[in-house]
Amino acid sequence: xxxxxxxxxxxxxxxxxxxxxxxxxxxxxxxxxxxxxxxxxxxxxxxxxxxxxxxxxxxxxxxxxxxxxxxxxxxxxxxxxxxxxxxxxxxxxxxxxxxxxxxxxxxxxxxxxxxxxxxxxxxxxxxxxxxxxxxxxxxxxxxxxxxxxxxxxxxxxxxxxxxxxxxxxxxxxxxxxxxxxxxxxxxxxxxxxxxxxxxxxxxxxxxxxxxxxx
Length: 214
Hints:
- By secondary structure, this protein is α+β, with helices and mostly antiparallel strands.
- The protein has seven helices and nine strands, in the order E-E-E-E-E-H-H-H-E-H-E-H-E-H-E-H.
- It has helices at 55-63, 66-71, 79-103, 111-119, 135-145, 155-161, 175-195; strands spanning 9-11, 18-20, 25-29, 36-38, 48-51, 107-109, 125-128, 149-150, 169-172.
């Protein structure tokens, strides 16, 4: 019997390293093409395979037989296309988590609200756009408050996730939501290399504010 509180470990089908389950993504095995279906919320039954959400691991699993072993057959798997499928599901998962945080009023959006949340000790994570002005200053604020920073999205994307035009910074005020959002964002950062896409924009000069930014 696994000890209470013990971390579940999984082996990556690509690099073959054993890592905590939360650091990998699950792919459910299905009977027809594409044969592997992303299962970000781990709700699909049947057999599954775990892989690190990184370009090298997807490619290694496709090239060296990690996926074939899970499928129990020789099937050509396109790692780039699979990375796109995983990223798309994770994006939907991220939007759902953000909507849940908004409905529960456990997220403070915009610079003023974020500062107040940090000051009052309600912050559990700082969600910071990759192209936010005063980025280093915000990182210092988070360090002083003892909360982690979540990244991986520019102002436009962060705003879209949060239902606004453009958002530079937000504070997540729920521990579980902060942990889940951070995990999804970390996975998406790793997958951007796999899909060849990036949502980062050139950083604005320090202190410059764009129209609609919070």
